[in-house]
Amino acid sequence: ASNFSGALTTLSEHFEENTSHKVTLIFGSTGKHYAQIKNGAPFDAFFAADIHRPELLEKEDLVLPGSRFTYALGKVVLWSPKKGFVDSKARVLNRAEFRHLAIANPNLAPYGKAAQEVLEARGLWKSLRDRLVRGENIGQAFQFIKSGNAELGFVAYAQVKRPNQRIEGSFWDVPQALYTPIEQQAVLLVDSEVARAFMLFVRSDEALKIIREYGYDIP
Amino acid sequence: MLTEADLSAIVVTLKLATLTTLILLLLGTPLAWWMSRTRWRFKFLLEAVIALPLVLPPTVLGFYLLVALGPKGPVGALMETLGARPLAFTFTGLVIGSVIYSMPFVVQPLQDAFTAVGRRPLEVAATLRASPLDRFFTIAIPLALPGFFTASVLGFAHTIGEFGVVLMIGGNIPGETQVLSIAIYDHVEAMEYAHAHWLSGVLLLLSFFMLLAVYALNHRFRVLRP
Amino acid sequence: MLTEADLSAIVVTLKLATLTTLILLLLGTPLAWWMSRTRWRFKFLLEAVIALPLVLPPTVLGFYLLVALGPKGPVGALMETLGARPLAFTFTGLVIGSVIYSMPFVVQPLQDAFTAVGRRPLEVAATLRASPLDRFFTIAIPLALPGFFTASVLGFAHTIGEFGVVLMIGGNIPGETQVLSIAIYDHVEAMEYAHAHWLSGVLLLLSFFMLLAVYALNHRFRVLRP
Amino acid sequence: MKIEARFRINRGDFRLDVDLNLPGQGVTAILGPSGSGKTTLLRAIAGLEHYPGGKLKVGGLCWQEGKNFVPPHQRPLAYVFQEASLFAHLNVHRNLEYGLKRVPKADHKVSLAQAISLLGIEHLLERKPETLSGGERQRVAIARALAVSPQLLMMDEPLASLDIKLKQEILPYIEMLHQKLDIPVIYVSHSPDEVARLADYLVLLEAGRVVATGPIHEILTRLDLPLASDSEAAAIVEAFVSGHDETYHLTHLDFAGGQITVTRNTLPLGSPARLRLGARDVSLTLEHQSRTSILNIFRATVDGITEQGNAQVIVRLLAGGVPILSRITRKSADELGLKMGKPVFAQVKSVALLT
Amino acid sequence: MKIEARFRINRGDFRLDVDLNLPGQGVTAILGPSGSGKTTLLRAIAGLEHYPGGKLKVGGLCWQEGKNFVPPHQRPLAYVFQEASLFAHLNVHRNLEYGLKRVPKADHKVSLAQAISLLGIEHLLERKPETLSGGERQRVAIARALAVSPQLLMMDEPLASLDIKLKQEILPYIEMLHQKLDIPVIYVSHSPDEVARLADYLVLLEAGRVVATGPIHEILTRLDLPLASDSEAAAIVEAFVSGHDETYHLTHLDFAGGQITVTRNTLPLGSPARLRLGARDVSLTLEHQSRTSILNIFRATVDGITEQGNAQVIVRLLAGGVPILSRITRKSADELGLKMGKPVFAQVKSVALLT
Ligand SMILES: Nc1ncnc2c1ncn2[C@@H]1O[C@H](COP(=O)(O)OP(=O)(O)OP(=O)(O)O)[C@@H](O)[C@H]1O
Ligand SMILES: Nc1ncnc2c1ncn2[C@@H]1O[C@H](COP(=O)(O)OP(=O)(O)OP(=O)(O)O)[C@@H](O)[C@H]1O
Ligand SMILES: [Mg+2]
Ligand SMILES: [Mg+2]
User: Do A28 and C63 touch (CB under 8 A)?
Assistant: First the structure.
């Protein structure tokens, strides 16, 4: 999952330091990788942005049985680079004083799905429909906002929260109750020593700390 | 079989491709003409600049366009001072992006075609009282028709298939900026393969028949050379 | 400033674009030649088919190619029976995908250029003892040089910027199938904007100078027509 | 009306340097070997190329001088190109119309239908240029040029690819153009024959320089110019109709030196006419001979002799003050004892009526 | 060697239908008005177009018959096109070399250097075709064709755009080609003049059909063909050198009908030569005249008379059995009382030596 790329890069660096193994990371959308794995991609492990695709792969016998696990829980925030634009109750949504609200495509990205659920929960899904701009993934949604073309939008907390940095602009930390938890799962695709070792490492305390620093909850 | 969203995507796509092609022809024709005639020393610089957008991955080009069109970008800032609506996430923005991206596919074939016309027919027309503009329309353009044809086909088809730029600056708004290519892409990503196949089939068939018609027509207009 | 991964992406990109362009010229030249000469009634069908890949969004085209090349696809299955390595996620696979995708950009300008050569120079060459192959190489190709030039520039640049197909069937494997366009895309996605700008700058400069060289050279070879 | 043209043109090694004063009526022929700059001159006059520093005045109007440069489409001329120049995308009829449509109706003087029938291209109107033969293409190009009713007609070897019969049909029409419509014609040709038949005024070009220029009858008979030594050398004689012979279908014409008989024409008595007397058609005798098929015999005196090769001489004669040329062998000249001032009889085998 | 050609070609309204038996040596001229099918015929012979059903045999070799069709590049011919045909991407020198390089060294018979100097194009070798004048282009095309040392040379009006002087330099060279190298030449022309000078054999084409064909001296003097009525009508006479006159630089030639004197040439005594006697250069008298500049006078009898227009007649004469033509006015014919069998004296003003 491309949203996890920063965290995963740091993880792999730590892993490489600890074990002197080499990890090659390939980022891309979950859907694309799923299609590629089905068609014989030479990948060892798969970190998806959702549960759905790893489950499907498991059903299709393309993964090592029992290797599926949740490596992080994504958090959604409503973010704007403008200071004070989003308050702690996100009243800005009801006032609708914006032209464009960016979300990820709910059909494709769990974060988009979550954004939809939040809006539905607040009864705004229909009324804001015309103002929604949808990125192919959460990364694009972020770019829409960051470039100022959309005033605000739902992005991953991980995107605005960099380790050891304060968040720019204003945001609303969406209560977990408003959306289905975004479980991000990983699976092993081949039975290799190194891959197993890496999966173990990801679940270590050292790794969980890093993941948390990058703005995810841990299971 | 086609959902409403599909239909509206088809309409947006055709509108976008047609408009983009028309604008490209409008802009590209004088540009290509000028480049085929000028003896300006630094023409090659301009030629290289026109071809340049091609080498950027569409999504990245789209990203830069997005930044440029945004309120902090040069174009966006200009639009703001002029009091105009920002261009991102609008159909107009899409058209601008597609035009930039497909420019070389239109300019290059036109320039080649104009060069192949040569000076002679235009000189003859001049001695028959045709003003420069007159002979441009009555001689240069008809004789360069194969080039126009190639330019239109490449420009049109490329815009239909275009995707990265459109996705980036369009924001995938149904009915406004959601084009067929994105719709199909979404279906593939969402693993709705049946629907994706079906839409792809429609797109291919539609395009195929349009291309067929255009190519068949083209044979009528080719100018024979001895 | 450039990481090792960036450098290897540049190398893969240049290799891919060069190879694709060469293969396209090799395949496209005879095809375009034949299409510019034949009076076959159904030529327009073939022309439409060649232009068709253009209208599919690259990622979708890539998806279909992936399915075709994968172990369950027709090509993949064939390769397997022949005992060959499957093509998906290999550099060879990338080349195949790019060739299919960029075909019309090469064939169309070549066909136009060959048509513009006309029959006369070839007839003259025939009376001067040149066999069909001989006159193809010594007359048709030199006189159609502007078309070759356009075809190469469009084909090359388009392959450099190409992205969707490559991402899909290449799998973004560093050193093998990760090209520069994908590397930049990754940096943008990962919000490493500085790195993305830097790589884009490198790509643009590199391409610009290559285009410059090519265009400057081209002026030497243009054939003047009266 | 007059045409003043001054051009200095450098193209590679070639240099055209002319300063011409051409009459604004009649046919001016530009004669010169291949590569002497004829086409270059025509293109400069038509304004197809802009050579700075040139000067061009046509009938009082300035077409080029200093910074002033009238673009070609605003010059009321027509140009028949040396090489095929039909518009490939238009059929013959639309080629013909192209210029016609761009000329105001009020300026139409030449009828398209007439031009079409004169050039025998009625059956070609619907055809595309690529299906025409070489001569057919050239005929269409001529008709197209005529159809714009130009005030100056320029033709770059328009008849080279046409057969004699066609030439003989087209030439009188071109003459008529300048006579009836008073359209001056500038005519490039290699053929002294054609030139003698057609031109009133002659410009002799060689390697980009003007060797001689003047009214045709003067230039043709000057022994110091290459024209008199040409195998087609001829003299032009101005005469007037003095009678018609209905029985034998002949016409008699008088000129200062005597009478000349040609094939019957329809000119009224007393009207002026131009005659071409080829040097090789003129033989000399010392006595007036009879019982001969030669009808045209008149007195003349030798006005000059120049050798042509080792075997032949060109004799310039004055017949009543009118210069004519005779080419005979040196042997005959000796036998007849020709020398300056000697009286002889000139026998002219055949005479062409040019008007 | 012989050339047998049978073609039935339909192009739109035009139909070419010929069945020819041409001699395999010497110059065969194809003469016909614009659009009569000359170029079409040449292209069929060269194999540039494949017309099924045609038949073509050249010197025993079959170039086309039934399914058999030798492609043009395998036919050892050269073709000078009617219209400009230089390769635009090659300079003059590389244009000239193009064919030369493709002919085996052993087959080289014509020297490129000689062709270049003959056509006066030495100074153009480095130039690109677009900088050449019309005539220069054509000269390069001729040199290029000659350089392949063809076994059959086909020329489609190659001299139309060249001036007389150049023509007179090139024509003897073309004659030499077929005499020294025994290369047959097929030559398309509009000019009966050029044809009479050059051709041994004549094909008269009109609207796609062969009107007459045969050795030139027969065809030229046949009163039933249009050629005898042409303004350039002439007879060809075979003679042999009987003496040289060093003083006056003359050469005497004898033929069956008498003696003819021409400008001195270098032919040895007794060698054969061809003479051209233009119909308009031949005058008739009833008595042998003296004290005249005309050197060539001989007896002849009238063999036929045909009217040309109302005023002139063409008289066919037999001088020692050799046919010659004379064009005179009807009036003169009446005055001289010409009728079949009547003896007259033919005075020939000028004679061209063709060999
Ligand atoms: N595609 C066509 N359709 C109709 N007529 C055609 C076509 N192609 C050629 N012709 C006719 O065939 C005739 C013969 O043409 P060709 O070129 O052989 O003439 P030509 O004798 O060489 O004449 P010229 O002396 O003018 O060159 C012409 O009348 C021409 O118009
Ligand atoms: N770009 C050039 N470089 C060098 N010489 C040139 C160039 N363009 C033209 N010339 C020369 O200029 C001369 C005059 O050309 P022009 O076409 O006026 O000749 P022309 O008198 O019309 O001859 P022709 O009777 O053969 O048509 C030619 O010798 C030609 O080679
Ligand atoms: Mg010229
Ligand atoms: Mg012809």
Answer: no
Q: Taking a contact as any Cβ pair under 8 Å apart, which residues of chain A between 155 and 194 contact chain C?
A: 159
User: What are φ and ψ of residue E177, in 5° steps?
Assistant: -50, -45
E211, E248: one domain: no
* SS3 state of residue E83: coil
DSSP per residue over A155-213, as a string?
EEHHHH--TT-PPPSEEEE--GGGS--EEEEEEE-S--HHHHHHHHHHTSHHHHHHHHH
What phi-psi label fits residue E79: left (phi over 0), alpha (psi between -120 and 50 degrees) or beta? beta
Query: CA D22 to CA D2: how far, in whole Å?
Result: 6
Q: What CATH architecture does domain C4-57+90-224 belong to?
A: Orthogonal Bundle (1.10)
Tell me: do E293 and E323 sit in the same domain.
Answer: yes
Gap between the Cα atoms of E127 and E134, Å rounded: 14
CB-closest option in B86, B167, B188 to A149 = B86
- Looking at the fold, whether D8 and D115 belong to one and the same domain comes out as yes
| Cβ–ligand 1 contact at E144 (below 6 Å) | no
Evaluate whether residue D229 is within a structural domain.
Answer: no
* Strand-strand pairing, E282-285 and E343-348: antiparallel
Residue-wise pLDDT for E304-341, tens only, equals 888 887 788 889 988 888 888 888 888 888 888 888 88
CA C57 to chain CA mean position, Å? 17
Is the shortest distance between the CB of D133 and ligand 1 below 6 Å? yes
D189 lines ligand 2 (CB under 6 A): no
Q: Is D320 left (phi over 0), alpha (psi -120 to 50) or beta?
A: left
Q: Please check whether residue A207 is in contact with residue A11, taking contact to mean a CB–CB distance below 8 angstroms.
A: yes
Range(s) of the domain holding residue E305: 234-353
One-letter amino acid at A54 equals P
Q: How far apart are CA C20 and CA C99, in angstroms?
A: 6
- Please judge whether C121 and E87 are an interchain contact, meaning their C-beta atoms are less than 8 angstroms apart: yes
Q: Answer positive or negative: Cα dihedral of B69, B70, B74, B78.
A: positive
Best residue for ligand 2 mutational test, from E133, E137, E165, E167 (most atoms within 8 Å of Cβ): E133
Q: Torsion angle, CA of A209/A211/A212/A215, rounded to 10 degrees?
A: 160
Nearest protein Cα to ligand 2, atom 9: E131
CB contact under 8 A, B171 and A35: no
- Say how many residues make up chain E: 355
Q: Are strands E185-189 and E152-156 parallel, antiparallel or unpaired?
A: parallel
Task: Let me know: does D161 contact D130? Beta carbons within 8 Å.
Answer: no
Domain boundaries, chain B: 4-57+90-224
Q: What is the DSSP string of A100-130?
A: -EEEE-TTT-HHHHHHHHHHHHTT-TTTTGG
Q: Which ligand is the nearest neighbour of the Cα of E136?
A: 2
Ligand 2, atom 11, residue with closest C-alpha: D14
Structure tokens at D203: 């410009």
pLDDT per position in chain A (219 positions), as tens? 567 888 888 888 888 888 888 888 888 778 778 888 887 778 889 998 888 889 988 998 888 888 899 998 888 999 998 888 888 888 888 887 888 899 988 888 888 889 999 999 988 888 888 888 888 888 888 888 888 888 899 998 888 877 777 778 888 988 988 898 888 999 998 888 888 888 888 888 888 898 888 888 887
Chain A 99-138, residues with CB within 8 Å of chain C CB atoms: 137
Query: Ramachandran region of residue B194, left (φ > 0), alpha (ψ -120 to 50) or beta?
Result: alpha
The one-letter code for the residue type at B200 is S
Same domain, E262 and E207: no
Are A189 and A63 a contacting pair, CB within 8 Å? yes
Residue A99: closest CA among A77, A74, A82: A82
* Pairing between β-strand E272-278 and β-strand E234-245 as defined by DSSP bridges: antiparallel
What pLDDT is stored for residue D168 in this prediction? 67
